[in-house]
């Protein structure tokens, strides 16, 4: 199942996963640009995300916290973890301050990835402009192709980062007293 992008439509993706579970397709793992589902008995489930960098030594303790709250770990990819529970289970994030903390975890990682990509793209822009000549060389063509590749990665990374910052702003706007 394709994802619409967690930074842009996390709630919608989780709702679609719940709908698919009710049709007998439950989440198995992350896949390229989406999720891998497996056939199972139709179930009424709710899905939720957590963004947290957890090292291997702390993973069992981290998962136990969610399990004790009624959430079962389904899969993880880097700092994104998906959990599932029965309807009526207390939400993982039930107040604005913890929601902000959740999204700040995601924003922190995205900030450095985006900054790195912007710097790399800027460097290639300078190199590309220095090598620009009327005569196309293999080096010039290679730099140009790499530049286009970097642009194709940098633009979505920047938009994803902007969406993460906007999400934090939107949650804070609901209660301006939160940091």
UniProtKB/TrEMBL annotation:
The chain crosses the membrane at residues 112-131, 143-166. Pfam families: DUF2812. InterPro entries: DUF2812 (IPR021359). Keywords: Membrane, Transmembrane, Transmembrane helix. The keyword Transmembrane applies. It comes from the Bacteria. This is DUF2812 domain-containing protein.
């Amino acid at each position: 199942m394709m994802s619409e992008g967690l930074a842009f439509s996390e709630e919608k993706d989780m709702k679609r996963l719940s709908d698919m579970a009710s049709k007998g397709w439950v989440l198995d793992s992350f896949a390229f640009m989406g999720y891998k589902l497996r056939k199972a008995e139709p179930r009424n489930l709710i899905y939720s995300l957590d963004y947290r960098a957890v090292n291997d030594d702390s993973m069992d303790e981290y998962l136990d916290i969610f399990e004790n709250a009624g959430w079962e770990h389904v899969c993880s990819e880097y700092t994104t973890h998906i959990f599932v529970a029965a309807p009526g289970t207390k939400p993982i994030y039930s107040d604005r301050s913890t929601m902000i903390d959740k999204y700040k975890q995601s924003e922190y990682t995205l900030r450095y990835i985006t900054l790195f990509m912007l710097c790399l793209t800027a460097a290639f822009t300078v190199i590309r402009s220095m090598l620009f000549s009327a005569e196309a060389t293999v080096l010039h063509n290679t730099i140009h192709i790499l530049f286009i590749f970097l642009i194709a990665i940098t633009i979505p990374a920047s938009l994803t980062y902007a969406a993460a910052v906007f999400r934090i702003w939107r949650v804070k706007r609901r209660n301006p007293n939160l940091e």
